[in-house]
Amino acid sequence: MNEVQLFLAYAIQLEREAARRYDELRAIMHTAGNAEVAAFFTSMALFARRHLNEAMERGGFHEIPEMDWREFRWPTGMSPEAPSWEGVDAMMDVQAALLLALDGEHRSHVFYSQMHAATQDPEVKRFAGEFAAEEAEHVAELQKWLARAPMAE
Ligand code: ZN
What is the pLDDT of residues 90-113, one digit of tens each? Predict the structure, then answer.
């Protein structure tokens, strides 16, 4: 794998995990009767899958490459912290679900920003920059939803 493919392979893991997590969060909100937030999570899962598909296409992957974050080493020697998602709890309220989603988007943003800063490869730089900008928008969007969410006692 060249540097571009390596970057895209990890981006694929990240976006796949994000999409799965949004599916879980959507189901919880649906069960809780919060159709509005469920619909929002559906659209966020779509964004993650769009990034995933874009990374698959650009990397020329026909199957999802299985990568291990513990072995993540960047050619420049930098090893960013593996983005991880905390567990979803079926009893989560709206605020907790939005906070978990925000945490995930924030970690994605940090990952892409770090890649953008660390790489010497112009293609990785362009991709990571684009993805980082979109994750920053997702972070801002979640903050808006959180500001409107009812506060837990
Ligand atoms: Zn995102």
Answer: 788 999 999 999 999 998 999 999
Q: Which residues of 96-119 are buried (b: 16+ CB within 10 A; e: fewer)?
A: bbbbbbbbbbbbbbebbbbbbebb
- 14 C-alpha vs ligand 1 centroid, how far in Å? 10
- Alpha helices (H) in the chain, listed in sequence order: 3-31, 35-59, 94-118, 122-148
- Which amino acid, 100? L
Q: What are the C-alpha distances in Å from 124 to residues 1, 61, 144, 150?
A: 13, 16, 30, 40
Q: How many CB atoms lie within 10 A of CB 66?
A: 8
153: confidence class by pLDDT, cuts 50, 70, 90: very low
**Could you report the per-residue pLDDT of 1-45, keeping only the tens digit for each?**
788 999 999 999 989 989 999 999 999 999 999 999 999 999 999
Q: How far apart are CA 6 and CA 9, in angstroms?
A: 5
CA of 114 to the centre of ligand 1 (A): 15
How close is the Cα of 132 to the center of ligand 1, in Å?
9
Phi-psi region at 74: left, alpha or beta (left = phi > 0; alpha = psi -120 to 50): beta
